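SAMPLE LOG
Freezer: B-3
Tube label: C17
Construct: single chain, 734 aa
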Amino acid sequence: MKKPLKISLIVAGSIAVLLIIVSLLISPIAKWYIEKNSKELIGRVITMDKLRLNIFTGSLKILKFNIKEKDEKTSFINFDTLSVKVKLFDFLQHKVTVRKVHLSNFYVNVWQNDSTFNFDDIIRKFNTPDSVQNQNDTVSSTWEIGIYDIQLHNGDVHYKDLAINGKWDIENFSLNIPGVYFAGKTTDIGFKLTFTNGGSLISKLKYDIEKSIFDLHLDLEKFTLAGLLPYMQQSMQLRNIDGFLETHLDIIGDMNHIQNLMVKGTVALTALNMKDKEDELILAADRILVDMASIDLQNSKYRLNEFFTQGLSTRFTMYKDSSNNFTRLLKPEKKPAEETVSAEKTVDTTAASSPMQLSIAKLNINGRNIRVEDRALQVPFAYDLKELSVKSDNFDLNGKNKINIQGKIGSTGIATINWNGNFNNFSTLDLKLSMQHVALKDFTPYTLEYTAYPIANGILTVSSQNAIRNNHLKSTNGLNIYKCDVEKSRKDITPVMKVPLRTALYILKDRNEEIKIDLPVEGYINSPEFSYKKLILKTLSNLLVKVAMAPFDALAQTMGFNPEQLEEIPFDALQDEFTPVGYDKFGQLANILLAKPELQLSMLQYIDRGKVMNDLSIRELKYNFAVSKNPNGTPEDIALVTAKISDTDPALSAFADSKLSTPITGDIYAKAYVLYKAQAAQKFDLFAAKRNQLFVDYMTGLKVPLVNLKVETIPPDSTYTGKSFYKTGLSMDN
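STRUCTURE (predicted):
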């Protein structure tokens, strides 16, 4: 054998032997070095059963690998098997080709406390000046990188947020990626995982790194919402949330313009139950489904095929501080620290964002129970809306919509609302409301608040038609109240308005125990003072006050009489008897009391005392003058003579002078008053009392109970002047 050939064989053999030795020793040496120097390398203890590196095939296999936590007892990351294969000769062509990455039976444990993670020490280890990469050492853009056949199987990932006691556990995590490419190809990723507390996620992702375009498909099944509670509690005052989330979504987007997203698919919540910190219901539903035809976030366009709810329940509670349970649900925002912002840092926010466009082909809301509570009242109010149904086809937030709402209200009522208008523009709107068989007793807290009267019973029917044109509301509201009884006013309640509700409603009842009220309402809805509620209450309270203050006006329509003739009934104060006209009016009053047996009739006798006393005195003077001229005359004769005597008769004046013990200056009336003042006063009181008694006797004779009558005369010190009449009034024992 020639010497050069022999030398070449020896060298080649030596290299081969060296490579074999290296291949045999590199694995145990690498394992020994990593385990021995792990704390210097990453600051943690690393152990493994085996490390196999084949420098000829470019394969690496690690068995039973474990990175400890800082306490060197618990495990941070561990796995059973990691298998990697690399094409070594591709490096010569400026290519990095990883043919295979298989990881099985792995475990990862991550915890966080505020901004601190359990792997921060590892990051700091690599974030030293020696580990900072030189900018000139970066891989050239001409290199092609591809990682193929990435498979992760049977993984357990555990995450805990110590600050909020949040916890996420993922079991059986699996990931399958045919290839990840960093030049010229589309990455295709798919993974599947199961959450310990319930639910699974299957995802498929296609990503074009050159165009930054991604296509993501997400299938989330029965994801348990309870795990979200600690995170929701950061901004909301919740006690608990239960239920399941399901999604089937296709998302297409651009990583360079993250808001440029197109989304379609379905999102569903089932068995939802959310309660606030007081353990009171916020929201519950058997199912909430959102079927998205397309969602364009960049242009704020939301097009839904369907929005559907089944078994929806919620609660709206108002409080005395003008808040409600939804505003109280949100935690108050923390005020940011004051800082000076320079003019250069000022952000221009004047650019107008696209207005939201929302359309729903089919809106179908089905509610089990919507509870409305008003705890701002002196007596709390609670009202249930059951079997709620809200339906609309081709709903458009920016267009004209027809919406039909139906449901059961309170203990017995049924309500229907027909809406025809634009939610973004109320200047033109038609709204019809119908409420039938509504139990009025349910609204006692409001009648107590505004009038201090509790409702004993009664049924309400409402028909309301509201039309808005050019912001002007014209509303007609028909109320039909049947068998409404109001109890006596509560003395412990301070009402908002002084309305004699009990009296007014009782007067308004017809013979069939019905009350029919028309309440027209008008106003400009764009006025700052406009309030539909206040308009209705003001109109209704004004009506009730008017009825109570002028009861005969209200009764006239139902009983067929002239109210003005009964409010004041005149009489002759010089007589102790009534005329036939007077008795006829008394009969009409009796009919009212017999029809309304709970009413009390008050009769106050108004008499001009000074004038009547003068009239009685001059009449007494004339009578005595007639007796002096006809001492043997009969009473009839005396009466005839008296009637013929004139006030200006000189003989009458002479007779008066003869009777005066001391002459006085003055006319005949002054002389008569001095002479017969006592007799006139006696007759005045006698006539007044007799008229009152005649009235009482007549009314009781017509079967009017005495307790329903209150007859009085104005006091002697009254300064009233004018005609004589009875002032009538109707009231109840409130």
